[in-house]
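Quick one: structure for this chain?
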Amino acid sequence: MRRAEAIRGDTFIANGTYTDDQGVPVNLTGYSIACQAKGNGATLTLTSQITDAANGQYTLTADPATTRDWEPGDYLADIEYTLAGVVSSTDRFVFRVLEDVTNAD
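Got it. Here's what it folds into:
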């Protein structure tokens, strides 16, 4: 993931695949995943769920009640994979929060 965008007040969903250096999916059985974005004096935490462990697939989400409180701007993020106490993180990427144009409130 090089970049992600979320619209403030909307449901955020991003699907990903954890791969090795050769691009082969890593089996995520036994892993836990965490993702945070930091910037603008805030930390945004995304919910993570492994959706297909054998094929390295996961989903990152945030519901509208969560994203409504996010301030628009660019944040720095990474995804952290943990297996048996060994932690490895992806390269950092930009997580951009956009203002909602049509506000349902």
